[in-house]
Automatic annotation (TrEMBL):
GO BP field: NAD+ metabolic process
Protein name: NAD kinase
InterPro entries with a match to the protein in the record: ATP-NAD_kinase_PpnK-typ_C, NAD/diacylglycerol_kinase_sf
Membrane-spanning segments: none
Amino acid sequence: MSQTPRVVVVHRRTEYDELIATHGTRGQAAFFLRGRGRDIAELEERDQRTRQAVAAAAAAVPVDWRRGSVERSDVARFLFAPDDVVVVVGQDGLVANVAKYLDGQPVIGIDPEPGRNAGVLVTHAPRDLGDLLHAVGQVTERTMVRATADDGQVLLALNEVFVGHPSHQTARYELRTPHDQVEAQASSGVLVATGTGATGWCRSVARERHSPLALPAPTERRLVWYVREAWPSPATGASLTEGELDGSDLALTVASDRLVAFGDGIESDALTLTWGQTVRVGRAPTALRLVV
C-alpha cells in the first residue's frame, strides 16, 4: 500500500431520494404517501441518518490521505486502484454490489441504520472508521462465485449465481456435475451459492425441500448448488438436484433458445447464453476481503 492510500466511500441513493426523483418535489411525494396512509417523515429521518453516516465517514479519513466517492449506479464505471480502501455505507446488499468490481482491496462496511439492517457485512458504526482505516490488514475473506461462459463472458457474485430463463419460464439444459454425472433437465433454474449467500435465497430453497445438504459457513470456500423445481419427463430427469462444489465447477449446456446467468439478484447485469453454449459455475479466484 502507498504512503497515501485512497479511501473510496461507496453509497447509494436513499428511498427518500428515489421518491423525490419520481414525484419531483417533497410536497408531491408527501401527498402521494399521505394518500396511502404513510408519512414522509419516516423516509426523511432515514435519509438524514444515511447522509450523516456518509459525512462522518468522509470526515474520518486522515487529512493526508486521498479520497473518492461513488454512488452505487456508477460503481460499474468506477476505476478502483490496487491500494484503495473501500468504505461501503449502506445495507449488506451494497457490499455485494461492490465486491464483484474489486480485486483484493479491503472493504469496511458501515451501517447507517443499526437495528434496521441485518448487519452481516456492514458491521461497523461510522464513529469507528478512523481506527478501522489503520487496521485494514485485519480482514476475513468471503468466498465468491464465478460464472464463465464458453465465449469468454465472466460474472462474479458474492452471494449466489442463478442460471435460468430471463422471463422465469422453464429453463432447459444439460447439467454436468464435477463427478461427470450428466442429466438433461427442465427446471426453474439452478442456484449456486457461497457461505455468505447461504443465509439468503439458497437457505430458503434448502428449507423448503428439507435438504440434508449442510450449508457452508460464511468464511468457508465450499459452494452448494440447487436445481429449482426440476421436472421429470420422457426427455428430462430430476435425480441431480443438489450438491457441493469444493474447487470444481458445475457445467450447464443450454438447450433453450436463451438463458441468462446473473449474480446477487441483479438481473440487469447478466450473461446471455444461447442454445448450445456452456457456462461453468464455481469458486472465484478472488475473494471479498472484509475488514473485521
